[in-house]
Amino acid sequence: MGCDEKREPAGGGLRVQDIPALTQDHCRMRDPAEVERIINEFLIGGPERMQIVSDFDYTITKQRTEDGGAVPSSFGIFNACQSLPENFKAETDKLYHKYRPIEIDPHMPIAEKVQYMIEWWTKSGELTSGFPFDQSEIDQIASKYTHALRDRTHEFFADLQRLGIPTLVFSAGLGNSVVSVLRQANVLHPNVKVVSNFLQFRDGLLDGFQQPMIHTFNKNETVLNETSEYYDLVHTRDHIIVMGDSIGDADMASGVPASSHIIKIGFLFDHVEANMKKYMDTFDIVLVDDQTMDVPRSLLSLIEKQHKLNLEAAKQRSL
């Protein structure tokens, strides 16, 4: 169902058709009334109950650029580093071609896939060991792709910082690349936390990845350490916007209280018709070939506007 269906909201409040970003042709929703209900809950709760959970590769970065240039994944940035051993890329490509089809196989149960993902990450860690490496190489390549963030990403992250909304960037890719791109794009504000796979070193040589291993199927808030500072920050924030480009990303908020209100936004680009039903069944809002942050920004704008009205009303009452 398109986003532009006209209807009165259940129980009053803001209506979907009053939100221009949600009435565009490329914006699709399975259940507009449910999206409407949750947006109104967000407005009641205000910024202090919000958190954002976002994938990185092809979610914060674009799925395509205007000039048709490819956007590398976070591991792709690492693989482009010149100092890597000669056989490294060939061996990692072999692993990719073996395990990637398993990762996206629509017929294999997830419990079975998990074992293969652990195998893939373990073998990748073994390959990424025993040679010297300098983070500045990643920084140099990442600097070429700061322009590859979705349009209005800077404004989106500025909105989140201004409103004090914790933002978790969850990536099954390489955290060193993720942090480098975000930092060089000037969006790695204090409210942004990156949970990903980070390189570790021993005696000046690469020694695989730090634990815990983050793969496609455990990329959710259950991996946040309950004693961590970030967990303390978000565990009471039960209004959540989840953003991703693959089906597995929709589960990134698993582990939050069952009473939470969650809007899941899916960016769909590849094989649109073949994937549409699955994305519509998984995400609340599906954005087809949308290379911007306009929809999540519009939700934040509504929350901020209502928050200001609430503060003004409280001020008037106290006079």
Automatic annotation (TrEMBL):
<dbReference type="GO" id="GO:0000166">
    <property type="term" value="F:nucleotide binding"/>
</dbReference>
<protein>
    <recommendedName>
        <fullName>5'-nucleotidase</fullName>
        <ecNumber>3.1.3.5</ecNumber>
    </recommendedName>
</protein>
<dbReference type="GO" id="GO:0009158">
    <property type="term" value="P:ribonucleoside monophosphate catabolic process"/>
</dbReference>
<dbReference type="GO" id="GO:0009117">
    <property type="term" value="P:nucleotide metabolic process"/>
</dbReference>
<keyword id="KW-0546">Nucleotide metabolism</keyword>
<dbReference type="GO" id="GO:0008253">
    <property type="term" value="F:5'-nucleotidase activity"/>
</dbReference>
<dbReference type="GO" id="GO:0005829">
    <property type="term" value="C:cytosol"/>
</dbReference>
<dbReference type="GO" id="GO:1901069">
    <property type="term" value="P:guanosine-containing compound catabolic process"/>
</dbReference>
<dbReference type="GO" id="GO:0000287">
    <property type="term" value="F:magnesium ion binding"/>
</dbReference>
<dbReference type="Pfam" id="PF05822">
    <property type="entry name" value="UMPH-1"/>
</dbReference>
<keyword id="KW-0547">Nucleotide-binding</keyword>
<dbReference type="InterPro" id="IPR006434">
    <property type="entry name" value="Pyrimidine_nucleotidase_eu"/>
</dbReference>
<dbReference type="InterPro" id="IPR023214">
    <property type="entry name" value="HAD_sf"/>
</dbReference>
<comment type="similarity">
    <text>Belongs to the pyrimidine 5'-nucleotidase family.</text>
</comment>
<keyword id="KW-0460">Magnesium</keyword>
<keyword id="KW-0963">Cytoplasm</keyword>
<keyword id="KW-0378">Hydrolase</keyword>
<dbReference type="InterPro" id="IPR036412">
    <property type="entry name" value="HAD-like_sf"/>
</dbReference>
<keyword id="KW-0479">Metal-binding</keyword>
